[in-house]
C-alpha cells in the first residue's frame, strides 16, 4: 500500500483525484493548506505528492522546494497538476525538481498511469540508493578489515625484521661464517619484500575503495627528494651506480601536497631504477610546470640506463601484478607501479613511462603543486642542499651513545625485548611498562621524583589502558615531556588521532634499529636544527 499525498485547492479536482487513487489501493492524504502539507510530508513522507501549479495566495515553487526538502531522504516524486502546459509555474516547478505533470481537466487513466510510474521511479531510485549505501558500507568494512590485517601482520614483522637487524648490527660480521651472514641477509631481504607487499596490497585495496589516506600540507620538494635519495643511496652504492639529482629551476620552496605519498612514488621509481640497472647511472630531475588550465605542477623524472621495457609490455606496466619476466627474475611483486599510479591520480597528477628494451627507462610523475603565489622560488639547488641532513635521517652517527632515560610502554613481550635490547645497547636507561596505566603512573612518579623520562615510546593497542587514553591522561595531568606513538597502525586517521590525543610524534612499526635510535635521540637531546626538522617531519 503506497502513501500518497494530494495538495489541491480545487475541491472537485482534489476529490476526483483522491477518490480514483483510493480505488487503486493508495492511502491518500489530502491537504489544502501549505503548513498542513509540509507538516504531513515531514512526519510521514509520502511516495508521491500531487501539487497544484496555481495555489491562490501561495507560491507553488516555494512550496515545492519545501516539500522536496521535507521528503529528500524518502525520494518522494512530485507530480504537478496544471491548467496549461504553457503555464510558467509548471516550467519553474519542472526546473526545480518536479518529476512529472498531469493536465486538467484530469483524465483518470492518465493520472493513474503517471502515479504508478512516479511510484515505480521512486522505488527504483530508493533501491539504487540502498544498494549504494550497502556497497559503501561493505567497502568501508573491507577497508577496516584490511587495515586490521595489515596491523596484525606488522606486529610479527616487527619482531622478524627487528631481530634480524639486531643479529646484523650487533653480530661481528667480520668473524661470522658466510652461511650465517647470508642467512641474515636472506631473512631481511624477504621480510622487507613481504612487508612492502603487504603495504602495497593495503594501499591498492584502499585506493580502489576510495579510502586511501591523503594528507596534504605545505612541504618542501627538496626534502622529499632528499629523503627518497637517502633511502636508496646505499643500494645504489652497492651496485656502484652513480645517483644524480638535477633541479631544473625555478623550484618552489614549498608545495601543497602529501609529502609521504609523494616520497612513496619517487622511492618506487628510484628503487626500480636501481633494481633494474646493472651498469650506467640513475638520475632524477625535478622541474616546475606552469599551466593555465591545471595550475602549477611539479614534474619528477627518474631515468636509468638499465634493462628497459619492451614497448608491447609498457601499456600493462601500471596494472597490479604486472611484473614482467625480468621482474620475476629480480623477485618482486609488480604492485608498486600500480599503487604509484593510483596515488599520483589522488595527488592530482599522472605517471607515464618511456623506455627502450636494453637501453633504459624514464618514469615521469606530475602532481598538482597547489597555489604558488607568494612562494619563494629557487633558481638553483646545490649539491650541498641535497647532501645535507635528511629530514628523516639526521646526520648523527648511529654509534653515538644515547644518554637518556626511556620509558617503553609495550604489551608484546617480543617487541619489548627487541626495543629494550636496541635502546639499552645504545646506552639508554630503559624502563618497560606492560600497559598504558602502568606507563602513566611510572611517568608521573618519575617526573615528581625529579628523574623524568626523556622520552616515552608508547604502543597504542595495549590492554587495561590503551596508548591514546594514557597520553591523554598524562597531558591532562600537565605532563609536557615527549611521548611518541610507536604502533603497528599506519593510517593517516590513526596518525591524526594520536596527535590529537597528545602524542608528539607517530611512528609505524616495524621500526629499524637506526631509525629507532635517531628518533629517540631527536626527542631526548637539546634541539639542534637537524632535530627540529626531524620533528616537523615525523609529527
Ligand atoms: P616490482 O618492481 O615490485 O615488480 P613495480 O610495479 O614497481 O613492481 O614494477 C612492475 C614491473 O615493471 C617490474 O616487475 C619490472 O618488470 C618493470 N619495471 C619497473 N621499473 C622498471 C625499470 N626502471 N626498468 C625496467 N623494468 C622496470
Helix-residue proportion:
40-55%
- Total helical elements: 18
The span between the termini is 58 Å
Strand order of the largest sheet: 2-1-3-4-5
Unique bound compounds: adenosine-5'-diphosphate
**Average pLDDT:** 85
| Percent of sequence in beta strands | 15-25%
Instruction: Say how many strands there are.
Output: 19
Structural class: alpha/beta
For the sheet with most strands, the description reads: 5 strands, parallel
The dominant shape is elongated
Radius of gyration: 32 Å
> Spans with pLDDT under 50 lasting ≥5 residues?
388-397, 527-539
List keywords for this structure.
binds adenosine-5'-diphosphate; elongated; 19 strands; disordered C terminus; alpha/beta; single chain; 5-stranded parallel sheet; 18 helices; 539 residues
Structure description:
By secondary structure, the chain is α/β, with parallel strands linked by helices. Helix content is about 50%, strand content about 20%. It has a five-stranded parallel beta sheet, sandwiched between helices. A five-stranded mixed beta sheet has the order 7-10-11-13-12. It starts with a strand and ends with a helix. Residues about 390-395 and about 525-539 have low confidence and may be disordered. Bound molecules: adenosine-5'-diphosphate. Adenosine-5'-diphosphate binds near residues 268, 276, 335 and 336.
